[in-house]
Amino acid sequence: MKSESENAASEEPAHELQSIDFPSPDSIEHSRLMGAHMPTAGGLKLSLISGKKIGCTAIQLFTGSPRQWSHPPLKESDIRAFHEARAETGIEFTVAHDSYLINLAAPAADVLERSRDAFRGELDRAEVLAIPWVVTHMGAHLDQGEDEAIQRLIDSLKLILEETDTLGYSSGVALETTAGQGTGLGWRFEQIGRVLDGVGPHPRLGVCLDTCHIFVAGYDIRDEASYAATWAEFDKHIGIDKLKVIHANDAKKTLGSRVDRHEHIGEGEIGRDAFARLVTDPKLLHIPIILETPDSETMHEVNLQRLKRLASGGAMGVQISVQCFGHYTDVYGSDAREIRIQSGWTLTDLVKKLESEYASMSDLAARCRFAVNEEYSKLDTILQEGDVVAVIPPMSGG
Ligand SMILES: [Zn+2]
Ligand SMILES: [Zn+2]
After folding, report:
1. Which of 52, 203, 226, 228 suits 111 as a labelling partner, its CA being 20 to 30 A distant?
2. Which CATH superfamily hosts domain 318-392?
């Protein structure tokens, strides 16, 4: 039902780094909120403190033991320490993941009641900790009828949202897309759509997309066409506006295998390119991204760096410096200037940019010579990170 790799991460052997081409290290600030599921052993606040240490601007945590039904109420001192750590670390986004035992669609009345109580506890803890979303899997029908299970899930969510509405809660429920293992619900976008429709529009009901889960559930995202098709399906049945958080995990198992095993970013069946597309997708830039990859102690930092590099390599482009000579210094100045261009740009693209920004720089391509890193270069030269470009006009006629 739940991802093994989410739990067993620390028991796995040390990971050998694979040589996959991630763009060069970056000195670029990332406005994109990104981070990982962080441990809370030793206190809830440690999820924030250790997250900050590895460069997280967003974290996920368990607010109680994921394998227990009941939890003692949080201590005042722990709540205060969590708020203080959030202020100190500046980590803007937090999200809780619910207990593995909860099944809000359970056929057995006693399990259903325990699940509703336990989930209410999850929301209570999130509320006092000012955590905006609690991610939950959609439960399992356990071969007792899918339609009935979906109806029970709808009833559970309605009940919990109504109760907490009357208390003025801000924390909401994010239904996670699942891998479709066993009798688990929520691996088809249609199922999630049915639940959202059944509950009706509610500002505290959203969705969490897990890349590993949707992939093994059969939604391909590996190339541009399949990526676009999967998001079109998501938008049709769920709606992009419902998406509140993304779990970024590569997959150990193949497309449609319905087996949930998380893999390091770029090293699994999904591969690097899909994550490059994901972290630079303009429609998703406001959605926080959380890693749930294995070997968390040693590899969360590495995987986070990989995502950041992909984010800066694509959306934010390539950093070059450009210096103009001759009479162009009148308008451009004589110093080299740092310019950020899109990756894949040639000298021709750069010329068009300069011509559009400086009225007196017309017809540059025909008039000037261009040097890249002190070598005269043709206009179809593709510019790389760190290149130094010189724009050299003909000697003025005197
Ligand atoms: Zn999950
Ligand atoms: Zn997940």
Report:
1. 203
2. Beta-grasp domain (3.10.20.30)
